[in-house]
Amino acid sequence: MNKLTYFIDTGKGDFEPFYEYKIPEVGADEIYARQLCTYFIMKGIQYELVSNEMSEDEEILVLKQVGNSESSVDEQFYRGKGLHLEFRRYSERERYRLLTSRPVETHFDIIRYLIKDVVDVPELGQMEVTSTEIDEDRAVYVIYVKNIGERG
Predict the structure, then answer these.
(1) What is the pLDDT of residues 103-133, one digit of tens each?
(2) How many CB atoms within 10 Å of residue 131?
(3) For 85-94, how does the pLDDT look when each residue is reduced to its tens digit (9 = 90+)?
(4) Best CA proximity match to 7, nearest among 57, 69, 55, 49
(5) CA atoms of 74 and 31, how far apart (whole Å)
(6) What is the DSSP string of the chain?
């Protein structure tokens, strides 16, 4: 593996190159973390993961554009502050309210959360994961959660 390339599915049978990360600019652990995110936000646009592929030494993520990213009043920006993970409540009624955030040491720490169906949210206990995202604009990974057994 030597790079990760994002493509946009235009919906017309075409796939346009969108963004690329190369090793050693980013580590393999970051590439794996990115592959585990359901959503990707860049320049105020939200994209959904459609396909996770490989071609020889290249990792490929195919995205479809969902629309403008919804902002929350409690959003923080983490660029230049190290790796951070946010836990947000999955509820349109609550506008994806921030429950808590925490700094993490490595992308492997982030991967530990991204691969789970149920996570321990600091100070709140176990909650069910509904989706995950990497928000490039805010430089943060986000885990969306709800109470275990709660209807979506």
Answers:
(1) 999 999 999 999 999 999 999 999 999 999 9
(2) 15
(3) 999 997 767 7
(4) 49
(5) 28
(6) --EEEEEEE-SSS-EEEEEEEETTTS-HHHHHHHHT-SEEEETTEEEEEEEEEEETTEEEEEEEEEEEPPP-TT----TTS-EEEEEEE--TTTTS-EEEEEEES-HHHHHHHHT-SEEEETTTEEEEEEEEEEETTTTEEEEEEE-TT---
Residue 112 φ then ψ, to 5°: -55, -40
Mean pLDDT of the chain: 93
What is the predicted pLDDT for the residue at 152?
64
